[in-house]
Records
---
Amino acid sequence: MLLTNARLCGLPNGAPHGGVEDGAILIEDARIAWAGGREDLPDGDHGEVRDMGGRLVSPALIDCHTHIVHGGDRAAEFEMRLQGATYEEVARAGGGIVSTVRATRAMDEDALVVAALPRLDALIAEGVAVVEVKSGYGLDTDTELAMLRAARRLGELREVRIVTSFLGAHAVPQGSEADAYIDGVCIPALRAAHAEGLVDAVDGFCEGIAFSPAQIARVFDVAAELGLPVKLHAEQLSDLGGAKLAAARGALSADHLEYLGEDGVEAMAEAGTVAVILPGAFYTLRETRMPPVDLLCRHGVPMAVATDCNPGSSPMTSLLLAMNMACTLFRLTPEEALFGATRHAARALGLRDCGLIAPGMRADLAVWNVAHPAELAYRIGFNPLHARIIGGRP
Ligand code: DI6
Ligand code: FE
């Protein structure tokens, strides 16, 4: 199939946004065979020709950090925080993550799928083709596994690629002690989930209200033993050196990073660890300290942008809005925001076959009713998607 009369962005060239004004994409066997300016199109029989009507075609978007599988909501906590309570105070009072754990444990796998589908559909409606989904609201083996099975089922029910992360080290369940939980529940649950093929990566929450670097390191030891890549919620509310730990373990990504210092940035640059910035959580918690975007740029650390869709700190199901916030709140350029939701997001998930319009990549594309790629990050609460093309199929 040949897509023609398209503006292209997200090609691996030096143009702003990786752009081509009058382009074409040749698709063979669900992969991109060729992409570039129409005048350079190689001769031959290209099969079915589809006119894109001059629309912008980008790589399909990738949401590389979500918690879309969960039970319940936290609207009451939202009201509490508006009255002045902080995120940590709510957590210590038995609200926060632990309250979502109660709601999630009360649901079976089917109910978790039903609850997550509208959130997934909202992402898909904005041209998303890959969604990372974390566990972490079960904190017992049965519920962690149910969350991950629900995540896998989402990928069967919709034309979307689901990548799972085991996040057993997300919070200390009420009535437990952190070390005992890590060794007695989290690590056995990880082994059980891995044995069932449910785990693509291992994540953790390294924070004063969650787990110490030493505790996370024990979970990462098991990930290494099982041959699983790691990533980490690090430096969101304080600097415990989580990003350095993640980098030392060759992590795919370290996420949040508001309190990251230069030593952590250097360690990430050295290890090739992607910085996933999550402006939805920054906005929701009314944080004032920004992630060190300039430092990350200066050290050449790739930055991904994601929704962090979760019921507490980022009840957001719009990756386009996350891109807008990354620009307005964190001063990314629209080009950086687009790369952050495509090529760098792919890298944060360890995927090498998507996020870029280039030969050999999967033909997962988004077609937009916009004139310029900067419009994707510029608009607020408007969805300009015309169509998704997945595996070359419109
Ligand atoms: N950081 C976050 O932003 C989410 N998890 C985490 O470790 C928030 C989870 C929640 O508040 O439910
Ligand atoms: Fe998160």
---
Amino acid sequence: MSCRVAKTKPAADGGSGNAPRIGENTEDMIIIQNIGQLAMPRARLAEDGGQSPPYGVDVLHNAWLRIEGERIESFGNGDGPAKPPGDEVIDAGGKCVLPGLIDCHTHTVFAGSREDEFVKRIEGKSYAQIAEEGGGIKTTVRAVREASEDDLVALALPRLERMLAGGVTTVEIKSGYGLSIDDELKMLRTVKKLNPMQPIELVGTFLGAHTVPAEYADRRGAYIDLVCSDEMMGRVAREGLAEFCDVFTERTAFTVDESRRILLRAKEYGLTPKLHADQITQIGASRLAAEVGAISADHLEAIDDGAIAAMKEAGVIAVLLPGCSWFLGVEQAPARKIIDSGLPVALATDYNPGSSMVESLALVMSIACTQMRMTPAECLAGVTATAAAALNRADRIGTIARGMQADLVILDVENYDQLPYNAGRNCVRRVIKKGRVLPVHPKP
Ligand code: NIG
Ligand code: FE
């Protein structure tokens, strides 16, 4: 495969001012030729009442695709249009091309490390026991509170660079390790600052209700008041730091009633609800997701039939996190049952230092195939089209169609089945973000 690397436009001031974003591209034309398989994922979403065919991937063999500026201009079979003057030509070498991957649930901004808990779990302690003994999320909260915004930026940048090298072009990042006004704002401002510094589009989610911090242990109501306050949630919304509000609804975190109050307040501030639901125990979290009209309910390892039906009725997307269960060594969510019921399913890494030290979305696909019996097509739709819907971006990213944003990945394998099949290997040859061909990345 030969391909010329387009000139990037690095932000001259390091990304903090009005300099152009890395990856910004307004006029260039690019044609990708000799595509062995053009993979076009589609989601089965609630709006059409489940009438569309089961989600999966349509393919074109021996294809071409033309990019104009930041968008997909046209594509088809064969050699494609004669090269217009000025078009940059990329030879895909007969390999597979697919939309940029979307990681729709992560905790990528964090400080510190929790390998001691990893070892404790190998020795027999559970994730919940470690949390009840004062470890878990609270350990990362201590580390994040000690870190400056610049420290958090410096820690997150190489993580994002590795994710990009793995073909990921959009990442959602949650707060939730600050748990005070200043520290929650610090985390979300970190996300905002990181956005123009590197090519991945970052989406902020406010997770002030991740756990009750130690200093509020005897006054949990006061902490919930704080999360719902104008000083915390209101500032997050006003400063445009988050689009979503998430709550960890679980026996060790927040009850259904507490979560309801937080999510209804979030809606008043214009934040869209999401939940960490049914991860360890079934306390009604995914039913609450349906009740409040959440865009997604994430985890779902302990979901039951009634909750699946409620989510389907309300059009809530199921975000499954198989890397987390794999990392914790616990049972996976019942993916087949959820898919076969007709719910749209997205997949994400849940990348975080406690329950899922897993950065690779491709590895998550491999785990979903081997441990949850999801097909590679279902997995690919889950990390593209359906993940885009879980981030309210289905009109712009996650599929290959005329006018969609040109976020694309060229693999070094012939078809998308080979992506999860090559478990743990990075099969990404080239990443294109908003129509800009990015420099070759160091392979992880
Ligand atoms: O999605 N479950 C809650 N939150 C994260 C874990 C965070 C942590 O352990 O640091 C999760 O698994
Ligand atoms: Fe999570």
